[in-house]
Design goal:
The protein is an all-alpha fold. It contains 15 helices and no strands. The radius of gyration is 30 Å and the shape is flat.
Length: 379
């Protein structure tokens, strides 16, 4: 932040300029802001302890910015700042997660917190402070995106696998029970559904991810031009076609051809060359995930989800009681997985959890009704 912006962010609003004491409502609000700024700065410092290099520097810079906001509220409160006040529940929860986990979920929640800053509408907060919070949201979004990219492939397989297991096996158990078969048959059907579904999910995810990675790898240029260039006929140089096909402009392609043919002593204009033959140091497809990792995640998480609806039957419950307990257990699990998706995406955990719950229980209810109709028709 520039020196001008810093001085502006510390400017004192007219109400605190000495024309009387601030109102009790203002004192209460400012103290809450002060507590939250301190808590948010602590969150960024705690996260920085688990990071290195550039990410650590960014997080520490965010903590420093929150410290400037803290100084603003301290200046307004004056003697009233001596009374301690707890940070909001959200800020305390973020602090707990940052101290004990330091995961991408914390950054996703911090992104939401920065985006909900009330400074833009508060007359006692400066315009620079409101702008800071908007910028902080984008900074935290960028940091969270790095973590999301690292998790994306395996996390997608895990969440989808768990939800498929929960919903499909609950629907299977509900449908079988509604048809009037014995509880032992319902249990066996649930176990069969668990094993069949987990194997199918694992195999399908392995094939899907392996195929996607092979497709992406097939689009990457090879190093064949390095070996073939010296032997090409200068009068019929098809190397130009290679670079044109890769999407280069004609000027860029001709420049690269001249390099490969040895007509230029150096890489005179790297902006034209694009250097497609250089080997990649990092996996550019990490967001896709590995085939084995995705398959194992799908298998394990489908199985962990599919076992939940049959737990009541494994422990000896039967009839309506078993179905009620199964529905309740699956409902809790659906809320948890939906909340996890909400946290990772930086959206409302409650909204995502309720959406998962409605979809899952809705599918189970429909299957139960179909089971009743089928049982009546067969009976």
């Amino acid at each position: 932040m520039s020196q001008h912006a810093q001085s502006h962010s510390h400017a004192t609003p007219p109400e605190a300029g000495g024309v009387g004491q601030p109102s009790p409502s203002n004192i209460k609000r400012w103290r809450q802001y002060l507590a939250d700024e301190r808590a948010e700065a602590a969150v960024y410092r705690d996260l920085a302890q688990n990071r290195e290099g550039e990410e650590r520097s960014i997080l520490l810079a965010l903590a420093e910015a929150e410290g400037r906001h803290e100084a603003h509220w301290l200046a307004l409160l004056g003697e009233h700042a001596r009374k301690p006040k707890r940070a909001s529940a959200r800020s305390r929860f973020l602090g707990f997660l940052a101290r004990h986990f330091g995961s991408v979920f914390v950054l996703a929640l911090a992104q939401r917190a920065e985006g909900r800053s009330p400074y833009a509408k508060d007359p006692n907060a400066t315009a620079a402070m409101a702008a800071d919070e908007q910028i902080h949201e984008e900074v935290v979004r960028g940091l969270a995106t790095r973590g999301r990219n690292r998790l994306a492939g395996t996390f997608r397989a895990a969440v989808f696998g768990a939800n498929d297991g929960l919903v499909s096996n609950l629907s299977l158990v509900m449908g079988m029970a509604a048809s009037g078969v014995a509880s032992s048959v319902v249990l066996l059907s649930g176990i069969a559904g668990l094993l069949a579904g987990a194997m199918s999910m694992g195999a399908g995810e392995f094939i899907s991810v392996r195929s996607q990675r092979e497709l992406l790898a097939a689009t990457r240029p090879t190093q064949v031009t390095l070996a073939a260039a010296p032997k090409l006929d200068l009068e019929h140089n098809e190397l130009l076609l290679v670079y044109l096909a890769r999407g280069m402009s004609r000027e860029a392609a001709e420049h690269r051809v001249a390099e490969r043919m040895g007509l230029l002593p150096c890489d005179c204009d790297p902006s034209l060359s694009l250097q497609p033959e250089l080997p990649e140091e990092e996996d550019q497809h990490e967001a896709v995930g590995t085939a084995w990792g995705a398959a194992l995640s799908s298998f394990c998480f489908f199985a962990s989800g599919a076992i939940v609806p049959i737990l009541p039957f494994l422990f000896g419950l039967t009839g309506v009681a078993a179905l009620v307990v199964a529905g309740a257990l699956v409902g809790v699990a659906l809320l948890a997985t939906g909340a996890a998706v909400g946290l990772l995406s930086g959206t409302s955990p409650l909204t995502r959890g309720l959406r998962q719950l409605a979809i899952g229980l809705g599918a189970a209810a429909i299957t139960y009704l179909l089971g009743l109709l089928f049982g009546t028709a067969v009976g």
